[in-house]
Structure formats: structure tokens, C-alpha cells
Amino acid sequence: MKSRSKIYAGLAAIIVPAASVIMALGATPADAAVGGSGPYPADYETSASLANHTIFRPQTLPSERLPILVWGNGGCSANGLSQGNFLREIASYGFLAIANGAPYGSGSTNSQMLTQSIDWAVAENSRQGSKYYNRLDTTKIAVAGYSCGGLEAYAVSNDPRITTTGIFSSGLLNDADDYQLWRLTKPIAYFIGGPSDIAYPNAMDDWGKLPAGLPAFMGNLSVGHGGTYDQPNGGEFGRVAVLYLKWRLKGDITAGRNFVGVDCGLCHTEWTVQQKNLTLDGDTPPSTPPPSTPPPTTPPPGGTPTCTAAYSVQDQWNGGFVANVNVTAGTAALTGWRVTLTLPSGASVSSLWNGVASGTSGTITVANQSYNGQLAAGQTTSFGFQGTGNGSGATATCTGS
């Protein structure tokens, strides 16, 4: 069950019109300037053949072909400059980034506009006389968006032309939309503003429902829902988005090391990192366990399915924490599981995702949801929760069925 309301989907829409007011007064916004920290200073333009969109590109097109990012704005705003600093930064590293909405546009957008962006880029790459003729890499396309724009990205992420999906401070609002997760086949990355981000519970709920085997990255930076998009060059979110796109769309293994492995570049930093099925040299993790892992054994007839629960604190602050519990099936498949969780004195659960809890403090039980109870032997799922107090010292035990 989704743990937060629809409030965040429109939150950025409250902020965006303020920029329109400044523009109406004649001020020159920072995101209208040429720049970015990459090797190709970037600017934006519009095209008569792609109405109601804003195109960010290197001012001088490099010899290399440009991979493509199509972007949904916060609040589903039709102002294509809503995250202008962020998108200009990405373009300056040799990408074509297309945002929904015209520069300084008003109103709202929809997910079909992202598909229009892809259609347009593919057509321009093939059209003789276009400045983009044979200058785009139409085999490498990312779809992404912030807040409400992330919902737009989800809606079209099954387009077979898409290489990867990026979800920025967003998460599905209703369980009825979970089919959009189940149909994912390409790598996905989440960049969320930490526990204070109003989209955080929904993003973490989505994380727990991703298809088994899907390559996925989750990064949380405690900056809240507003992110760092308006900072020079998009701030930290801009820096990390460039690295992710360089890895996924340009095959830059050095950039990829920021996301993969226990010692990844973002690990042990201000980012809180989770990974699923990630490898540097491909999207399918090794199918065989390492030599040090004993081979699975067949349980004796009539044996009781077993499981283990591993508790960890993901984030701790004065007065609260976020914890995660990994549930792993033993040598037999599970049809369900139940975790007994003993919290430290003074700690309590305020919200929980990917499980059904009984109780909020002391010793509580958490049972599986309908979608994560069936586990093959050795398979792992997880649930998480936000709590008050100090999360250190909790214990967790698992019973399978």
C-alpha cells in the first residue's frame, strides 16, 4: 500500500509559477545562460516541429553522436526551463536533453509529450538537412523526470526504444499503477531527497516491488523534495545524473563505478545507496554463486521452510531513523514469511512499506505483502520503515511458510 498522499505530485507546481513571475518582471533567469561544467557549453532552443518542448544541446555539436534524455518537469509544469540548470549541465557533457514544455510555458504536461520528444529526435537524426542529421545516438535514450515528471517517465518507460529510466524524487501514487513497475525490463535508477522528501515512502515502496533481476540503483541524498536542480549546474543531483547517463548511455565504466559494488563512488558518502543486480560490464549479474558460497541443498522431506532476516539502519538523525530488513529464503521456497522485530526502548515505527505490521513499538511482527511473499530458495526481498527514536540495536528473526 502506498504510504503517502498525492500531495507531492503537485508540490513543485506551487514553486514553478514563481519563476514565471520573475520572468514577467523582465529578470534574466540563470537557467537561460549558456554554460554547464562539461566540455561542450550548452544552450537551449525550440523547434517548430516539436511544439511545447525545450531542447538543451551543446552550443557547438561535437563530432561524437549525442545520446538522448527526455525529461518530465516537477509539477508536470509546462515551463521547459523548470530544471534548466540541471538539464543544461547534462547537455554540456555531450547529450541532447529535451524537456516537456516551452521555455517559460504555462499549464501542465503529460507523458505523451515524452514520446513526442523521442519520435522527434529519431526523425531529426534521419532527416537530411537537419542539424542533427546522423548526429544523435538513437540507440541510447533515457527517460526521466522529477516529482510529477517522474510519474510521466514511469508511464512511457516500457517504450522499446528506451535504454534506462531515471526517477527523481518521485514514486507511484497508487497501488493500481504498480503494473508500470512489473513491466520494466531496462535498468532503472532512483535519486531521492532522503526521508524528508515527501516522495520518499512511495519511492521506497516502488523499490521493493521491482521485478526480480532488474538492474536498479537507489540513491538518497538528504536535501528534501526540492533537490538541487536550481543550484549552479544542477548541484549534486546534476553531478550524479551526468555520471549515471555517461555510464548507461555512453558506456563509461569509470562513471559506472560510482554506482556499482560495496565500495562504489557514492558509497560511504553523504548518499545512502542501495543496489540490485548491478554489474559494470553488463546488466545481468553472474548466474552462479562465487566459489566460497556452498551449493544449495535439498531439505529433508516434510521440512519446514526457513528464512533469515537482516536488519540495518539506513539513515539516523536526531529523533528518527530509517531502517531496512532483508528477508532471504533458506534452502526451500517460501509461500510467505513473518519477521519478529524487537525495537530498542523508546523506538517506534511511524510508517512501513513492503510489509504488513502488527504493533509499532517493542516487539512487533511484520508479514509479507501479497506481492513479495513467494520466494524461491535463496531469493531475497525486503521491507523498510521510518521510525522515531534511535534505531540501533534492533533484532530481527524470520519464520517461513
Structural overview:
This protein is of the alpha/beta class. The protein contains eight helices and 17 strands. A nine-stranded mixed sheet has the order 1-2-4-3-5-6-7-8-9, with helices on both faces. Strands 10-11-16-13 form a four-stranded antiparallel sheet. Strands 14-15-12-17 form a four-stranded antiparallel sheet, with no helix packed on it. Helix 2 packs parallel to helix 7. The longest helix has 16 residues.
Query: How many strand elements?
Result: 17
- Element pattern in H and E: HEEEHEHEHEHEHEHHEEEEEEEEE
Largest sheet: 9 strands, mixed
Estimated radius of gyration: 22 Å
Low-confidence stretches are 12-32, 284-302
Q: What does the average pLDDT come to?
A: 86
Strand content: 25-35%
Structural class: alpha/beta
Distance between the termini: 22 Å
Strand arrangement, major sheet: 1-2-4-3-5-6-7-8-9
Helix share bin: 10-25%
The dominant shape is elongated
Domain CBM2: 300-401
Keywords: Signal
Signal peptide: 1-32
Organism: Micromonospora solifontis
